[in-house]
């Protein structure tokens, strides 16, 4: 059975690639190729985080002289913040700031926060030494 003369044979067009798509063939980014790296990164991050918790509870109890309950509360808040803040960063990145600006702002704020925390630790240790 033949096609009527006013209709094109669409099966031939579908089999032949168009000139615009064949000239711009590029490899797709992401996908399943990057999944092992993402899963490995998350696994190492969790191992490091759980290793830090064991040392941090001893540090809070010995150097800061916190009780067990207070030290556990501090660590619980730390774990809650580190698990919740990536969701906030993802929302800001997707909705307002974009990927690179979010990474820059988060890196800068993390650096500033750690410097302030280091300063407080130094002042606390200096007070303890002078006593």
Automatic annotation (TrEMBL):
Keywords associated with the record: Membrane, Transmembrane, Transmembrane helix
Which regions span the lipid bilayer? 74-92, 98-118
Read off the InterPro entries from this record: MFS_trans_sf
Ranges for region Disordered: 1-28
Instruction: Please list the residue ranges that the record marks as compositionally biased, kind Basic and acidic residues.
Output: 1-12
Per its record, how is this protein called by name?
Protein NRT1/ PTR FAMILY 1.1-like
Q: Give the gene symbol.
A: LOC104748228
